[in-house]
Amino acid sequence: MSCGSPIAIAALKGYYAEEGLKVNLVSGTTFEAQQAALAAGKMPVINGDYQFFPAINSGFDIKLISGLHEGCIKVLVPIDSPIKSAADLKGKSVIVDAIDGSPMMVASVAAGNAGLNPGIGGDITWKPFPWDQLIQAMDKGEGDVVALWEPFATMAEKSGRYRVLIDITKDPIFANRNCCFIFASGKLIKDNPEDVAKILRAIQKGIEWVSKHPHETAELLIEKKKIASDDVDFVSDLLESYNYGAYYGRASIIAAKLDAEYFTAELKKYGFLPVDLDVEKFVDNTFVDIFSPAAKKTK
Question: What distance in Å separates the CA atoms of residue 224 and residue 222, rounded to the nearest whole number?
């Protein structure tokens, strides 16, 4: 996916090396494998999304340390679909890559805010398919709606067969808020907070570079086969839509905590987190300002 571009750019531009670090970038693992590796300290940091909050609440030793960017999920319908708004999802089937995954969360929060019950057994039927078969499933008529990660959502939109129902870059429920964050191993924060801070500094340099050089970033990602596209202009436009410029320096730290509070409350309302969860306490326990002296203390 394109959304983790600053992490790759930080390696390609030598920002980790500038911090005295040698890194090995890992991709292609499952969410379950990622959260287990992060909690065990086998992986120091990762770019993640809303689905990390329920994982943390279930006991995984994972901490939130920064924001990353806006908008990398869209909900699409066939071009001639009668569905015009989230309220129209009542009684419809929505194809997703995973039950309780972030695309399902996006569609659920939108539907819930439109007055529907998006829970399992409620107003919407959720149909999971492997992530690389979602559009094929739609083409076969398996569902009425599909919730997709980028770049696949915009690729489907550009095919002319689908139109956007919900774009979290623009939808007022999600707009101007992080959809992806930087999470870190709680174990490594306890054992070696300085290295985690170095990694985040390198990533923030990557975020800044991507925000200022989206076209060059697209060229590098395509050259190094880091994204499923060979269209430089398409990738560049996608990167610009993520508004990386708002998420480096202190702004990324401040926004991370505020957006975590907002989305944790939304996920709680629609069944992804317990109804009795103390949102403020949960986020206080989850968030670590890794550049603060307090980060050196066990949390």
Answer: 5
Cα separation, 253 vs 245, whole angstroms: 13
- Report residue 81's pLDDT band, with 50, 70 and 90 as the boundaries: very high
Q: What are the E-state strand segments in 60-188?
A: 62-69, 73-78, 93-96, 125-128, 145-149, 162-167, 180-185
Average pLDDT on 119-141 reads: 96
Verify that 64 and 77 share a domain, yes or no. Answer: no
Residues 6+ apart with CB under 8 A from 231: none
d(CA 295, CA 72): 30
Structural domain of residue 27, as residue ranges?
5-70+177-296
Q: What does the alpha-carbon distance between residue 206 and residue 237 come to, in Å, rounded to a whole number?
A: 17
Residues 77 and 159 in one domain: yes
Tokens of 28: 């292609």
Rounded-to-integer distance, Cα 220 and Cα 81, Å: 38
Distance (Å) of CA 248 to CA 132, 174, 201, 216, 277? 31, 19, 9, 19, 30
CA distance 219 to 264: 36
Give residue 127's pLDDT band: very low, low, confident or very high (50, 70, 90): very high
Q: Which pLDDT band holds residue 31 (cuts at 50, 70, 90)? A: confident
8 A C-beta contact, residue 202 and residue 188 = no
How many structural domains comprise the chain?
2
- R_g over Cα of the chain: 19
